[in-house]
Write the structure tokens for this entry.
Amino acid sequence: MTTLTRALTLACLIVFATPASAEEFEATGAIHIKTNVQYAAAIKDGQPWEETEYRNGGKTLVVAEIPFGNLPISFTIVARDNPEFGPITVSAERKNFKKKRSGRTFTWVYKTQVRFKRTGKKTVPGKKTEKAPKKPAKPKKEEADDL
């Protein structure tokens, strides 16, 4: 009887202790983007990417949770606080990602660097600058009153 109980217990443990299948797991990666501005934003299909974080005082943008099933993928990087800088497009393919070890786990990371360039005007749109008159205004001559 004890042999039968042990066999059934062992069979139940084997059935319920099977690891999750590889079909349920989807590998993800992260893109580390070094910029020359602070707190840039990543936009995908007109919507901001939710899984972002900042490092190095806001100069490094980390775009996380990128599913490998959707590669190649491209993001538009925009300088939030500096509208005089134009947007930059960053594309990533599977071959760009490298395996990085973090303790006992491995992550897939793509490191890149972008430099924003000014689009021409240094003034912020919407703000008007007042120009000083070239010549001082001359006072009008007083006319004689006919009273």
